[in-house]
What we know:
single chain; alpha/beta; 4-stranded parallel beta sheet
Amino acid sequence: MENRAVIGIPRGMLYYRYETLWQVFFREIGVDFIISEPTRQDTAERGSALAVDEACLSLKLFLGHVDALVGKCEYILIPRINSYGRNQELCPRFSALYDIAINTFRDKGQKFLTFSIDSHKNETEQDAFLCLGQALGVLPRKAKKGYETARKEDQRLWKSKIQAQNALCSTDGLKILIAAHSYVIEDAYIGTPILEFLQRNHAAAIRADIVDRENACKHSPELSPTCKWELSREILGGVLQRKDKVDGIILLSTFPCGPDAMVNDILLRKLHDKPVLNLVLDGQSGTAGLETRLESFLDIIRFKKGLL
């Protein structure tokens, strides 16, 4: 592979977890990249047409982003991520994304690039980035330095995001905790409209997923001692850390996500001291019904607080 090859990065799924790592790493090793545009309705429609009916909305959106990059770059980056460590498993879809993509677009002549993170095979994150650098024709020393720089920047930005969320918890006014994956709440088509609605209605949106991940997973057994999915455990622990600092909680997921269905059921059964709204997004166009539910939820909270 030529070092000047352009890498395409789909703006979906774990992009929101790895965007800093990927972008800084590619810049440090001198590789050009492009990122698919934020999700629009046509992204969702194209992804839905490409996916099997049983796929969750997040996977459909991801395929729409891959489709948007086909023919615009030499390689599209899609990692295989199975496990971060002992009892740190990810939903199987994250290890299947690469295979799903290369089979879905097998007739397009598009090339794909991948790396693997799997503790069961002793494939660490650093090893994955070194292998990625090797595939791009970069010297190991340069790839390692690029990864270390990217990792340091990623940790710095993550700490600043946590601090910003902590500051929001201390502000006056209505505060709503959103329990959702980053690829749901940060998606321009399905998540941003909810954040914008809360902002217009003078309610601060606080994220359950932007917390100290290690600490969140440590405490998640207080809600579910058997939850095996790492990202779900982070959200459970994040809810525990912030639930006493907010006025209400929104459970936000995409249909039909199995892990989220389990986690949301746990939270609905165990959170009795806060109003909870369970929103499951199915990709239908229009936000009128969604806004009605959100408005009613905020009115209930304000009524309980004596503000109505």
